[in-house]
Write a structure and sequence with these properties.
single chain; Jelly Rolls; 14-stranded parallel beta barrel; nine-stranded parallel beta sheet; 43 strands; Pectin_lyase_fold/virulence; signal; Pectate lyase-like protein; Pectin_lyas_fold
């Protein structure tokens, strides 16, 4: 037994030593069409000057020539990059079936390249047939840092105009496609954007355990192609265990038919997280088990895009602390806007300061919400969504400045104040803050008559309601001196105006989130909502009085 163990040990030692020598010597393989080749084998020894870009491109072209000569990508050698720095001063062009693999940590350094230079362009503008195996050489990362991270460093976020990695063809008509291609253990920093997709024949892309961070404009960007539409692109673009951080927009999509899946990813300190540009018309972005932290603007911005887009967030954490605007509190604010359909399930929202305007929902009322369930809030509660408003004039912008109390189109006020009623542009009102800038918002300004202890405001025309629906309302008001007490009541009636129920045992202002809620009782079809305001000191400013369905 001892002799057999000794022989086994000796054999293992010999094999290990032989492998070590093989790695050290970087040999020319007997059959160059199989196995692996070291990048260093393709150096131009006679030039006298080391040119890493030329060396790397020669190695890639060598594998490309084998594939084109054999019309097959199933038996190609991989290209091994020894650990170290490779100074690259121009774009490297490759294909999805050319495998660049690291042996140790590899730095592809484009810091001295031209400002408009891209780093690595992965295209498949060839006439290679798919074969019965359907592009077999593509089914693994074309950038594989499993043996040590591959870092792609750009010219710097201040001056770079290119992207670290570009995928997709430039023109339709080629039989080659960029499918089943992606990266593993790759870091891309110092560019205008990290990863750009040209949406022509690019799909089934997968990136694993990679970081796209510290790039000026975009972490991931889907460009608008020359054809003005996506062609055979966008199916299941998958990111697993990735970090997209430190960019103006984490994900920017300016094309149609793109479907992204993010699983166990982090979106840290970005302006917008998901931004749909003007040419995005349909497609889906799904975030599962993600951590989202540091948002200067919006979690989802679809204000410029089409109506057939979807965003789904589930089993995730959102901590919308500001990134660059550190002076602003982490309080509930608008985080989803525009026309994209939205759903959220089991999402934990983490806020650290009270809402500046409790009537402002996290999800804009214009957003078509598919479903919301299982939302939780850490420390500070927030209004998730207001749905469609029941009252037409919740922000008091239907009447001109100077309108008297008895002439308002949608509201009755009692008692009338001796100072009359006026509308004013409110500089102090920050409820309409959007993209870091204050948007001027009108407010209903009332001067309280001497001796008047209370004042009421009530909708003039009844609101149509449906039995069994939960109706919600809030009134946002303040005064110059002292604190206001605001009590809300719901008065339900039938079509003939017969009273069905008056619900005045509501939640405002006893709870930290001052929203009143009631369920429409059987037989009720109409609703009046009344706010009774007391504690005013000469002047009351009401910025909003919305009524909406809870779901």
């Amino acid at each position: 037994m001892k002799r057999r163990a000794l022989l086994t040990l000796s054999a293992s030692s010999i094999i290990a030593a032989a492998c070590d020598r093989a790695v050290a010597d970087k040999p020319q393989l007997v059959n160059p069409g199989r196995g692996f080749r070291w990048i260093g084998e393709f150096e131009n020894a006679g030039s006298g000057n080391r040119d890493d870009a030329a060396t790397l491109q020669r190695a890639i072209d060598y594998v490309r020539e084998i594939a084109e000569r054999s019309q097959d990508t199933s038996q190609l050698p991989v290209l091994l990059m020894q650990s170290g720095r490779y100074a690259l001063n121009r774009t490297i062009e490759t294909a999805p079936w050319v495998k660049l693999c690291s042996v140790g940590g590899v730095l592809l350094d484009f810091s001295q390249a031209a400002d408009d230079c891209n780093g690595i362009e992965c295209r498949n503008e060839t006439s290679l047939p798919p074969t019965l195996l359907r592009f077999p050489g593509s089914r693994s990362p074309f950038l594989d840092g499993s043996g040590g991270t591959i870092s792609i460093l750009g010219p710097g976020i201040q001056r770079a105009q290119g992207w670290g990695v570009v995928m997709g063809n430039r023109r339709p008509g080629y039989s080659g496609v960029v499918r089943d291609a992606g990266g593993r253990n790759v870091v891309v920093s110092g560019w205008r954007g990290a990863l750009k997709f040209d949406p022509i024949n690019v799909y089934l892309s997968s990136w694993i355990s990679s970081r796209f961070e510290q790039n000026r404009e975009e972490g991931l960007y889907v460009d608008l192609p020359i054809s003005q539409r996506s062609i055979n692109s966008g199916e299941r673009m998958t990111f697993i265990d990735c970090t997209i951080a430190g960019s103006n927009r984490a994900v920017r999509i300016d094309s149609d038919s793109m479907d992204f899946v993010f699983d166990s990813c982090s979106f840290d300190f970005n302006g917008d997280v998901v931004y749909f540009d003007r040419s995005a018309r349909y497609g889906t972005v799904s975030l599962h088990h993600c951590h989202i932290e540091g948002i200067d603007r919006l979690l989802v911005d679809a204000t410029q895009a089409g109506a057939n887009l979807r965003v789904n967030v589930e089993n995730s954490i959102v901590l919308p602390r500001r990134w660059k605007a550190k002076g602003k509190p982490n309080s509930p604010r608008r985080l989803v806007s525009g026309s994209a359909r939205f759903s959220a399930s089991a999402v934990e929202w983490r806020f650290e300061a009270p809402a500046q305007n409790p009537a402002l929902p996290l999800i804009g009322e214009e957003v078509p919400v598919e479903h919301i369930s299982g939302l939780s809030f850490q420390r500070i509660p927030a209004l998730a969504w207001r749905g469609s408003l029941l009252n037409a004039d919740s922000k008091f912008d239907s009447d001109p400045v100077g309108m008297q109390p008895g002439s308002l189109t949608h509201w009755n006020i009692s008692p009338r104040s001796t100072g009359g009623l006026e509308f004013a542009a409110s500089d102090a009102n920050k409820a309409m803050e959007y993209e870091g800038q204050s948007t001027e918002s009108r407010a209903l300004v009332l001067r309280v008559a001497p001796g008047a202890s209370t004042m009421t405001i009530r909708n003039k025309s009844p609101l149509a309601v449906r039995v069994g629906q939960a109706v919600m309302a809030t009134c946002v008001a303040d005064t110059v001196g002292g604190a206001l007490a605001i009590d809300l009541s719901f008065e339900f009636s039938d079509d003939l105006g017969n009273s069905i129920k008056t619900d005045s045992n509501l939640e405002y202002p006893s709870r930290s989130l001052p929203v009143a809620r009631a369920v429409v009782p059987p037989g009720a079809t109409r609703l009046f909502v009344t706010a009774q305001i007391s504690g005013a000191s000469g002047r009351i400013r009401i910025t909003e009085f919305p009524v909406w369905y809870a779901n």
